[in-house]
Amino acid sequence: MRLGKKQVLTVVKKVDFGVYLGNDEERVLLPGKQVPEGTEIGDSVEVFLYKDSSDRLIATTREPKLMLGEMAVLTVADTNKYGAFLEWGLEKDLFLPFKQQTVKVKKGDKCLVSLYVDKSERLCATTQVYKMLKTNSPYQKGDRVTGFIYDTSEGWGVYVAVDEQYSARIPRKECFGNLEVGTTIEARVAEVKEDGKLELSVRERIPEQMDKDAEKIRGAMKGQGGKLPFTDKADSEFIKSELDMSKAAFKRAVGKMLKQGEIEIGEDEIRLKN
């Protein structure tokens, strides 16, 4: 009997509270409310095996959102001092221990997890999924993709599971906007690495992005009386904190606006022309 897997087992005994599945050596209870109508001894039933709140092996005909060898995005139902409990389609929530959380989660959060069997032979979840992600995606440079942010690194950027299964990363220099763990994003494939992993960008190709950046700068200037109190000579970190864009992107957009005659640049400010 395989914990954490779906399998077909035979009904060997009927009782008031359900049926027992298995053989002469191993048996597992399928509770009465899970037994398909008309089930008799000798019938085959497809079930999923896990452990109940008393750590007893139990069968269910319900469809779990996650099985051994798989990954899935699950919602945190609750937390306590030992970890978190995830909704996964079964009566008993799935336990996610603190030590298996790459980022601490709270009730209502979503997290990408895989399933494992702990030392006590219980099914538990882990957010340490990096090594499980595939590197054979069908995507090419320039493709638009949907991904789930599952981890971050101050030095390396944001880690993304494209389609919840392919390994991808947004480099630190490309990290703009709301890129929090537990969120789903739309991005562009900037590069397919030699090892098959994807590098992503949440920004458009330069020509399209210049228009968006110019619009953002225009809006910021209008909100400050038609001017910005700094120029493209400002520090890159300051520009990023003020406008959420890189210094290079700021300079490109400002250059385009200057060429179009929209602005004039002073010694320490940029002004919109009337």
Question: How does this model look, in words?
Answer:
The mean pLDDT is 90. A hairpin with a 5-residue loop joins strand 14 (184-192) and strand 15 (198-201). Helix 1 packs across helix 3. Strands 3-2-1-4-5 form a five-stranded antiparallel beta sheet, with no helix packed on it. The protein has 274 residues and is mainly β. Helix content is 14%, strand content 39%. The protein has helices spanning 206-222, 236-243, 247-259, and strands spanning 6-15, 18-22, 27-31, 44-51, 57-60, 71-80, 83-87, 94-97, 110-117, 123-126, 144-153, 157-162, 166-171, 184-192, 198-201, 227-228, 263-265, 270-272. The protein is elongated. It has four domains: 6-60, Nucleic acid-binding proteins (OB fold (Dihydrolipoamide Acetyltransferase, E2P), Beta Barrel), CATH 2.40.50.140; 71-129, Nucleic acid-binding proteins (OB fold (Dihydrolipoamide Acetyltransferase, E2P)); 133-201, Beta Barrel (OB fold (Dihydrolipoamide Acetyltransferase, E2P)), CATH 2.40.50; 206-272, Winged helix-like DNA-binding domain superfamily/Winged helix DNA-binding domain (Arc Repressor Mutant, subunit A), CATH 1.10.10.
Describe the protein's topology.
Layout: E1 6-15, E2 18-22, E3 27-31, E4 44-51, E5 57-60, E6 71-80, E7 83-87, E8 94-97, E9 110-117, E10 123-126, E11 144-153, E12 157-162, E13 166-171, E14 184-192, E15 198-201, H1 206-222, E16 227-228, H2 236-243, H3 247-259, E17 263-265, E18 270-272
Parallel strand pairs: 13-15
Antiparallel strand pairs: 1-2, 1-4, 2-3, 4-5, 6-7, 6-9, 7-8, 9-10, 11-12, 11-14, 12-13, 14-15, 16-18, 17-18
Helix pairs in contact: 1-3
